[in-house]
């Protein structure tokens, strides 16, 4: 009765095409509740390669999103793209004090980070006992240029929020995906999972087994290619094509002329990415393919991916198994659910001890 609830926290995912917000709660049994979620589109070029190019415009878009979601929470978890973060797993002696571990981490970091440590935001996390070195522990270190972190913190501050967690997008996506994997047959134990987050310009592929990252690679394909096909086929401007794509207001021949060829090309890109994984590692198969991102829910995509790869494929719903709060438009949230994978993982940081 007297246990403390974790302080409220918003997960805020800033990508090249939109800002996404998720806020989660928890009932007395520990089950998660989706309290709020929302997406605000961003114009092309406002975010480029993870950099905020149009600061004021992104601030205004984020402010609109927070206002529309109706959240009173001020603390926010944000993330940096994996491309601007250097991550490394190292082995350290067990039993070190926190200060001793900090000294060791800084010493190790000097070997991997091509900048002065004065220019870098550095953090570490003890994963657990080392599987290869008895008595030692596995530690993940993560570092990024301070200016990258300060850009995100400055954005939150300009919106009236306080950044209390700075994560890595791929880590947050894995955290949210872990709930989905647990609902697979056998709770996904020992299964090799290929997770594709299909973004606007690039798609992030992560291959997971249990809690371990086996492989990761970014691919240059995404939802923006569908927009470009609409522009070429119908003479829309880029903005018109994006608006009509989101609203579903497309010509009658869209399915046969644009959608089907795009779905086939996307499935071929997934197949190509998996083949590269197989030739780069000892593996020659995966057990499941999970698709996330706004493009993931396109009609026929999972069937096309299974046809091209021969592996079962499904769309990720990070809200699966959650109660839905009164402040959420349930049908809309479920329709857009694949887009919220990273934002959901960020919001889940509230419940990590």
Automatic annotation (TrEMBL):
InterPro entries: ATPase_NBD, FtsA/MreB, PilM, SHS2_FtsA. SMART domains: FtsA (SM00842). Pfam families: PilM_2 (PF11104). Coiled coil: none annotated. GO terms for biological process: cell division. CDD domains: ASKHA_NBD_PilM. SUPFAM superfamilies: Actin-like ATPase domain. Residues 9-177 form the SHS2 domain. This is Pilus assembly protein PilM. It comes from Ottowia testudinis.
């Amino acid at each position: 009765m007297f246990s403390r609830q974790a302080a409220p926290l918003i997960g805020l995912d800033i990508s090249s095409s939109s800002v996404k917000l998720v806020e989660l709660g928890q009932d007395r049994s520990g089950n998660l509740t989706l309290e709020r979620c929302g997406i605000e589109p961003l114009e092309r070029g406002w975010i480029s390669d993870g950099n905020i190019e149009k600061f004021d415009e992104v601030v205004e878009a984020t402010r609109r999103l927070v206002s529309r979601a109706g959240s009173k929470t001020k603390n926010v978890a944000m993330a940096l793209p994996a491309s601007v973060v250097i991550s490394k797993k190292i082995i350290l002696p067990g039993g070190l004090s926190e200060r001793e571990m900090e000294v060791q981490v800084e010493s190790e970091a000097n070997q991997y980070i091509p900048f002065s440590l004065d220019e870098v935001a550095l953090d570490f996390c003890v994963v657990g006992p080392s599987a290869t070195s008895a008595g030692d522990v596995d530690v993940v270190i993560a570092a990024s240029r301070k200016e990258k972190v300060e850009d995100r913190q400055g954005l939150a501050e300009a919106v009236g929020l306080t950044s209390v967690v700075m994560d890595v997008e791929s880590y947050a996506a894995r955290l949210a995906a872990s709930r989905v994997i647990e609902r697979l047959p056998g709770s996904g134990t020992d299964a090799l999972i290929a997770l594709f987050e299909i973004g606007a310009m690039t798609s992030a592929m992560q291959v997971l087994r249990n809690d371990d990252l086996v492989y990761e690679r970014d691919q240059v394909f995404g939802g923006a290619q569908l927009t470009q096909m609409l522009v070429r086929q119908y003479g829309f401007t880029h903005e018109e094509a994006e608006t009509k794509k989101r609203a579903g207001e497309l010509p009658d021949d869209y399915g046969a002329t644009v959608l089907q060829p795009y779905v086939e090309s996307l499935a071929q890109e997934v197949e190509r990415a998996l083949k590269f994984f197989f030739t780069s590692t000892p593996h020659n198969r995966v057990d499941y393919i999970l698709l996330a991102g706004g493009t993931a829910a396109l009609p026929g995509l999972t069937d096309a991916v299974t046809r091209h790869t021969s592996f079962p494929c499904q769309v990720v719903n990070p809200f699966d198994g959650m109660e839905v709060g009164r402040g959420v438009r349930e049908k809309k949230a479920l329709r857009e659910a694949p887009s919220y994978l990273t934002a959901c993982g960020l919001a889940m940081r509230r419940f990590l001890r």
